[in-house]
Amino acid sequence: MSNVYSPTDPRFAHLGPEKFRLRQTDAVLLDAKFETKPIGFFRDAAMRFAKSKISIVALIAISIIGFMAIVGPYMTPYGYNDQNLDYINLPPKIPALARFGIFQGTRVLQNRRVDALSDTSRYPEGSIIRIDNRRVMGGVELCDVTVDYYRYMGIDDDVYFLFGTDYLGRDLWTRVWRGTRVSLIIAIVSVICNVSIGLVYGSIAGYYGGSIDMTMMRITEIIDAMPDVVVVTLFILYFGSGLISIILALAVKNWIGTARMIRGQFYRFKNHEYVLAARTLGANDARLMFRHILPNSIGPIITRAMIAIPSAIFTESFLAYIGLGIRAPESSIGVLLSEGQKVLLYYPEQTFFPAVIISILMIGFNLLSNGLRDAFDPTQRGTE
Amino acid sequence: MVITLFIIITIGFMVIRLMPGSMYADDADMTAAQMEILRAKYHLDKPIPVQYGIFLRDLVLKGDWGTSIKMYIGVPVFDVLKMKIPVSMYNNLFSLLISLPIGVLLGIIAAVRKNSIVDYTTSFMVVIFISVPSFIFATLLQYYAAFRSGWFPIIYEASATGFAKLHSLTLPIIALSLGPIARVTRYLRAELAETINSDFMLLARTKGLTEAQAILRHGIRNSLVPLANVVIPMFTHIMSGSMVIERIFSIPGMGGLMVSSINNTDYPLTLAVLIFYSVVSLVTVLVVDLAYGVIDPRIRIGGRHIE
To answer: Residue B260 belongs to what domain range?
Structure first.
């Protein structure tokens, strides 16, 4: 017979339950169940990301440009390669903004003869807006005329080109957004290629280590020693300057950085106990690599991809500039910039819009990648 | 390094020779016999490995880079390069030389006055200058500083010498330098801000150095080592950037040479330009490796690199 108390035991009949008192009735069990939801890795990162206002602004700017790149070309009745020789080099005219005095479709014509101003065959009615700078040179009275260029060219009032037109009368609004789309596609697809290659290569080198790692890293060092210009040029020389070959040319060297980063991550994590545990449970190499070790690197991978996008956009427009990139009539930001460059001194507005868009994209992606890096890895904040 | 160069030359040669079409395919006014003679003259009738052997033999033993066959007919490639390289290098080195000290200076100021208005302004400029491509700045400068205001020539004046030459190269050099300046500034600011808080900096001030002395003698020296890592990609960046800048400002340099040699299918010239770019970037790597030893005596050749 044990001496353990039990209320039904007749020996303890004189000790009713009311004689007992719980020692800790006032203690509240706080962690009985979690009141809040657990915060996962991405949620955590997203919360930190949302705190950084500048990253949010960058994200919004990029989203707007991305959205316009998708729908922009369909917003006007003109195709990206519709040429109309009546509408050459028109200035931008945005009816919604015209009343604020910008983008009215005006242009200053310099050194015009004053006596020709009343000639309605040259200056149609209502086309002259302002006359300045009257002067006499060589017995002829000259002046600078600000004209409504659309009326001056005899174009109907309801015809307008939001960003103007180029030297073949193509609508620049359509071309700019189509170019943005092409540039973004090139950048994103090439970054996907380079991350995929770098991921697999770096995983294998980092996981197996030893002589495999050694050989694979030597190979990357040799490829890395070749200057970008040379690699990209040779690649495009050989495969031609189509969309695909530019995408691949951009990936030829860029995967190396990703591969090194992944390899470093593998060296950091592959000797952890949880990997050993998974291996003991019979996980094979591929499962260990891609299911257990690689997910640790998801933050750096995303950050790296974001850094690679602006550099891909840069290289694409760089190639178009030196004549190795996308060829006309297809449009890309680089093509537009280099076409605008040719007429910069006469029609600077043709360079203005692509330049603004590429600048916003580049700044936006740089800020976004900074924000993402801080969000995924707060210990890296402020370092480069 | 020699091995890398050899591989680059080999790949370059093979790619260029294996390109579809002959170098003379588009010269319709040439008879078959003439074409045969030309092909024999430039060894184009032999198998590609043999061509490659001949090319290497001439290059290594005689220093003969071959002859330009389309653009500068009959002129040795080496002479063409000799004409173009100084123009490009003048630009690139100049922009490297001005961007390093300016970047270092701005980086120090931003690090010392951390979290002040100066620091924020610098950081803001740095983001803009790093992000926006150099050719956008070149275009802006060309339009506003050259065309609208007339302070500088719109395009490069090839005949100018001395100060006038520098004057006409000012805008290209500025456009090339903005990015590198921002890069150096950002890097040095991050490095120095960390170094300033370390123990040996406290010691340096405890032993009686002023803040300026401590930073100049102890802080910067430590921050320069990782900076050397930035210089290599920076210089190759300047070089590729200068190809576009040369085009915008009509500077007759290597960038233009490469593009026109490709478009004119002048392959010996293309190959030589590509080899030139490879050599320059390899030499940059070497120089930076050697500079480690000077900047930081703890690292000597033969030891492990700090990565």
So the answer is: 84-279
